[in-house]
Design goal:
702 residues, binds adenosine-5'-triphosphate, alpha/beta, 6-stranded parallel sheet, 16% strand, 26 strands, globular
Length: 702
């Protein structure tokens, strides 16, 4: 039976084509899918590294590259390129079956041969080699192919590894990166082989000459396409290759048969955590659970994005109907309002003005020597976080991480003020979002039946303990109950929750993703520099530190650009000029974001850009739905991504704001915020400031 397969390389190439060429590609390969090859001619190449590679005419300018394994009637579409490039590509590629993992591998044999002498010269002059500690037998056991060993031996540094990584087959690059990041041979095997678990199991009986069989064992490399309709469904959304192709490390997490309890996936910005969460939700929903699957995240706007991505990933209505996508506060609101309705109570959300009035009332009555902001923070991050309901509990509680210590007398005063403010809101039946979450958790915990079978939770690092209590109460403890994804380096609110302290134990079921898919290496290196040497508390227990080790990207582009200005007007003129350049380069306005630390600065930038004749849309005000360049605060950038990002007013006194003082936790949060903002950029990052640059910016090496 002839079989059509589509390689992961193919979609990004197809995405770049003009619509008429795409239509032609679809029609040519549609014939493969339907096994009607009449009139199609697969051409063999002279001097090809691999004689199983063919090319096919798409039109006068474009050619497809097809792998045709000797065995069976099987074709794998590898790429589509302009004529000369296609011929050069086809000639240079070599396919093989990894002897240890059983997966198909492709390498750019020509480029590797070209780079080898340079590596050799570098190695001869270098005092050390990166993999000197590992004997050949270990490297071979891990899947490094014998003919690549000499090249591997000549890699002297992580920078050199980064330079060749893109040219190497994925599994071998994964092995070398794992070893370079400090893992032992055994740990590397455990890490990499787990990603290729199905393949390894089958590999025992594998024939390294049988490319066709290896293709079927390599879902990260190529997928089988059942017919013309399926081909069209994949090609219809060529930019979303994450729908079809996952890195082995992502696939194994998303499609693990079962986790014995809560599972945690961490990874720095852009490593595909949300992608993994979406696939996991679909995987769980496909097993027809008795109750729905909850897919949730920090805000409503982010859950709207999740819904849209889920609709792109899954087409089965039954599966989609099984996944309930809601922001965590929406969920809290739903549980809480159901309960209030059953009691016949009318209630309202406490506005900012209601809350300010309550704090003022409390301070008037108690004359406590505290600012309303301090009391509000103490209420949210100590009292509601620990679910404290009595003065005695508050007097005895831990306030770790809250900065200045409070003596017993001060604690009494604080409790009294909080008690009065809360009573005032209660009397008016007004509730803050966190109170709603805390109450919803209590209500749900008191119910005999869970609300969901499974919960998949994105942006886990920013949820408040009250949210966690609610989520815990919504799903009965057991296999596949909670699947969490998050990044402690992106913790930008004060919600420092230790999952263990909340009764959510992920020990043995916690994994980290390291390969960045969004930003270029240049942007990642810059962003990582913002956090260099800073320890962030991990999610599992809030104690150990999480690290960025191994965080990398295979994409390359321009270095981030920082621009100094004498004053704001000059800075914003330069911003407008930069945006016009991006637009002139063909970047759509909606793929450009401008962000600043405060709403006021965002408004100022928006006004300046309008004066320069640019269309702008403020994410906060009109949800970024209007045409034009997107503008928002740095906080609102969380979870989003854009082709080009400009961060303005990244200067002393603004980032971090002077009011923060020297509190280490506050300053770390500011660094995380800048890290989040910088890592929203896919291709270009532009940073400007007026006066002195922010002390949090890393130095750019020219
Ligand atoms: N396997 C994949 N193939 C292609 N693209 C991918 C893959 N995984 C992730 N991506 C792309 O990388 C980008 C980042 O993915 P995603 O938003 O899931 O990362 P994240 O770790 O949740 O990021 P952040 O923490 O910064 O919000 C997205 O554009 C996504 O489509």
């Amino acid at each position: 039976m002839p079989r059509l397969m589509l390689a992961s390389e193919f979609l990004p190439a197809y995405a770049k084509l003009d619509p008429p060429v795409r239509a032609r590609v679809q029609s040519v390969f549609g014939k493969f899918a339907e096994h009607t090859f009449a009139g199609l001619h697969l051409e063999k190449l002279q001097n090809a590294r691999d004689e199983r590679v063919r090319t096919i005419r798409i039109d006068k300018f474009w050619r497809g590259i097809v792998l045709a394994p000797a065995s069976g009637d099987q074709y794998c579409l590898i790429n589509v390129l302009p004529h000369d490039e296609a011929i050069a590509y086809a000639r240079s590629r070599l396919f093989s079956v990894n002897h240890a993992l059983g997966v198909i591998e492709m390498r750019d044999a020509e480029k590797l041969e070209l780079i080898a002498p340079a590596l050799r010269i570098q190695a001869q002059a270098a005092p050390e080699r990166l993999f000197a500690a590992f004997p050949d037998k270990d490297l071979l056991r891990l899947g490094i192919e014998p003919d690549l060993l000499p090249l591997v031996r000549d890699i002297t540094s992580e920078a050199a590894l980064q330079a060749v990584e893109r040219l190497l087959p994925q599994a071998q690059a994964d092995v070398l990166t794992a070893l370079a990041s400090g893992l032992s041979v055994e740990e590397t095997w455990a890490e990499v082989s787990a990603g290729y678990a199905e393949q390894c199991a089958a590999a025992e009986s594998v024939d390294t000459e049988d490319l066709g069989a290896a293709l079927s064992r390599s879902p990260s490399f190529a997928v089988a396409v059942a017919g013309e309709a399926e081909l069209a469904a994949i090609l219809d959304q060529p930019f979303d290759s994450w729908r079809v192709f996952l890195h082995p490390s992502q696939r194994r997490l998303a499609y693990a048969a079962s986790y014995a309890g809560p599972a945690l996936v961490t990874g720095a910005a852009g490593t595909g955590k949300t992608v993994v969460a979406l696939h996991r939700a679909v995987h769980l929903a496909r097993h027809r659970p008795a109750l729905p699957v909850l897919l949730t995240t920090f805000t409503r706007a982010l859950s709207d994005n999740l819904r849209a991505s889920l609709d792109r990933l899954e087409t089965g209505q039954e599966v989609l109907a099984t996944v309930d996508v809601q922001g965590v506060d929406q969920l809290a609101h739903a549980v809480f309002s159901e309960q209030r309705a059953s009691l016949g109570e009318h209630w309202a959300v406490a506005t900012d003005a209601d809350q300010a009035a309550a704090w003022q009332h409390a301070l008037d009555l108690t004359q406590a020597p505290f600012a309303p902001e301090f009391l509000a923070d103490e209420w949210e991050h100590v009292v509601l976080a620990q679910d404290l309901t009595t003065a005695a509990q508050y007097l005895a509680c831990s306030r770790a991480g809250r900065g200045e210590a409070l003596g017993p007398r001060q604690r009494e005063q604080v409790w009294q003020a909080i008690d009065i403010a809360a009573a005032q809101l209660r009397a008016a039946n007004k509730w803050t979002f966190l109170q709603i979450a805390a109450e919803a958790a209590r209500v749900q915990a008191g119910k005999s039946a869970p609300r969901y079978q499974h919960a998949v939770i994105d942006e886990a690092q920013d949820l408040h303990p009250a949210h966690w209590r609610l989520l815990r109460a919504c799903v009965a403890p057991g296999a596949d109950d909670l699947f969490l994804v998050g990044d402690p380096h992106q913790r930008i609110y004060r919600n420092n929750a230790s999952l263990r302290a909340l009764g959510i134990e992920v020990r043995g079921r916690s994994r980290r993703l390291t390969l960045g898919y969004r930003s270029t290496s240049e942007i990642l290196d810059f962003a990582a520099g913002i956090l260099t040497c800073r320890q962030v508390a991990d999610l599992a227990d809030g104690q150990n530190s999480d690290s960025l080790s191994g965080y990398r990207s295979l994409l390359h582009g321009r270095k981030p650009f920082t621009r100094a200005a004498a004053h704001r007007a000059e800075e914003l003129d330069a911003l407008a000029a930069q945006i016009k350049t991006w637009l002139a380069d063909g970047v759509p306005a909606a793929s450009i974001a401008v962000a600043a630390r405060t709403r006021h600065l965002v408004d100022e930038a928006a006004e300046a850009l309008r004066v320069h004749g640019l269309e702008v849309s403020t994410i906060e005000k009109d949800a970024g739905r209007q045409p034009g360049v997107r503008l928002c605060t740095m906080h609102k950038l969380k979870g989003l991504e854009f082709q080009c990002v400009a961060l303005v007013a990244i200067e002393s006194g603004v980032v971090p704001p002077t009011r923060l003082g020297a509190d280490a936790a506050d300053l770390l949060r500011e660094r995380c915020l800048l890290f989040v903002a910088a890592t929203r950029a896919r291709d270009a990052l532009y940073i400007s400031y007026s006066g002195d640059q922010s002390s949090l910016l890393p130095t750019l090496v020219a």
